[in-house]
Each structure stands twice: as C-alpha cells, then as structure tokens.
Write a structure and sequence with these properties.
The chain is mostly beta strands and about 240 residues long. The protein contains 2 helices and 16 strands. The protein starts with a helix and ends with a strand. The chain has helices spanning about 5-15, 35-40; strands at about 55, 70-75, 80-90, 95-105, 110-120, 125-140, 140-145, 150, 155-160, 170-175, 175, 185-195, 200-210, 220-225, 225-230, 235. It has a 16-stranded antiparallel beta sheet that branches.
C-alpha cells in the first residue's frame, strides 16, 4: 500500500463514523458518551496476513458458511432479500472464490442482484471478500453497475468479511476499493440473542458497519450454523 492511499484512509477514519452503501442502511446514530474520542483512536485493519494458497471457494465458517445450494430468505414487509450460494466460482486476484448471490426486491420489483466473491481460509475459517459484480434494476431493466469492484483492479484489495473466531472490539475493513466501496465493521458482540420471524437465535455475532464514504450506520447479525439472520430491517423469514 502506498503512503498516499494510507494517508487517505487515515484521514477518512478521523472524519468519524459513517454508513454503508446498501439500500437498507440506518440513519446516522447519535454518538455515545466518549464515542467520538474513541473512534478517533480506532484502528481499522486493512491488511491481512494470509497465504492465498490456503484460500478455498467453499468453507465452514460458522457465521458465513460458503456451501453451494445454501439459501437464506429475509424479509421486511413487502421487501425481500434472498441470499444464495451458487455452484459457480470466479477467479479474482489469483484466488478461486465462491459466489454468494444477493437478490433484493422492493414491493415485488427487482432492485439489485449482486454476486459477491468470498474465499475461506482452510486453517482459520476466516472469510475474505474479493469483490462483487452488481446489476442495479429499474422497471425490470439494468440501469447501472454502481458499487461493483474486484480485488486487484484499480487499486482495490481484498478485505476480511467475517473472522472464523471473531472477538469483541475487532475492527477491520471488509471492502477496500478507493472511491467505490470502503465498508468496515466493528465486532459489537459474539453472544447476542436475536428474535426473527423464523425463530430465536442464541450466541449471535453482531457487526456494526460503517464507511468513510457515507454517514449512515448498518447492523448485521449472524447466527452460528445458519448465517446472516438480520440485516438492519431485514429479518430471516423462514428457516433454511
């Protein structure tokens, strides 16, 4: 990483907590007492010591198992969010990655289909994020590919999506694509109890997601052995 890009990231962190580029983000949250000072001192990991030869397109991370055919269906009112692990793979930045397709519908209308590229470390269970292809829709037609990025292209690098053994207080970048995607998360809890229409889940992972590119905050919850069960307003609607 060059000094210019490093300085850019440090500058963006000091600007404070921001939000992510998804359509289901929360508005900016009020700062807790002492939070501003804490965030200024926060260190967000942006480089990861991993041997690419150890990365596989499938894996058994308890919070994000990459197993072809696995599907999760989340809902919020008439809106739907469907997550499906495809049988396809894609080579990105020299790594064969598995593909998670994310399909978002709003009141029955297709809004976005993204194909997210993940690779799991065979030794640690860490899941790394190598980018995404994005199709944005309006009235049934593709209107743009905004938010798409690939590690190894235009200065983008892979990030850490979900650790195999997350620890409270961990802070790291999931996406590192300058001016396109800079999502980062803090591990809030590894022992949350979360109620959804599909049931109540124990010992869940809670990630607080922000980005220097916007001013919103997003919260995601993952249940061990299941995967993502809550993405802001979207909740798991039925058991897989």
């Amino acid at each position: 990483m060059n000094l210019e890009y490093s300085a850019m990231l440090v500058g963006m962190v000091v600007m404070g907590m921001c939000g992510c580029a998804s359509t289901q983000r929360h508005a900016a949250e009020p700062a807790l007492p002492g939070e501003s000072a804490r965030l200024k001192e926060a260190v967000w990991r942006e480089t990861f010591d991993v041997n690419k030869a150890d990365l596989a397109p499938t894996g058994t991370n308890p919070y994000l198992p990459i197993q072809p055919g696995k599907v999760l269906k989340l809902a919020h009112g008439n809106d739907r969010l469907t997550l499906l692990i495809l049988r396809d793979t894609k080579t990105v930045d020299g790594v064969t990655a598995g593909v998670l397709e994310e399909r978002e519908e709003k009141s029955g209308q297709l809004i976005e289909i993204s194909r997210n590229f993940f690779a799991t470390d065979r030794n640690t269970g860490d899941v790394y994020y190598f980018g995404e292809d994005v199709d944005n829709y309006r009235d049934g037609k593709i209107i743009s590919h905004d938010s798409a990025w690939l590690a190894g292209v235009n200065g983008a690098r892979f990030g850490l999506m979900v650790p195999g053994k997350p620890k409270v207080g961990d802070r790291f970048y999931q996406e590192i694509a300058p001016k396109v995607a800079l999502d980062r998360v803090e591990v809030v809890s590894v022992d949350e109890t979360v109620k959804t229409p599909a049931g109540t889940f124990l010992h869940c992972l809670h990630l607080r997601e922000t980005t220097p590119l916007e001013t919103d905050v997003s919260h995601k919850y993952y249940a061990p052995g299941v995967g993502m069960i809550k993405d802001d307003e979207f909740e798991l609607a039925e058991m897989p």
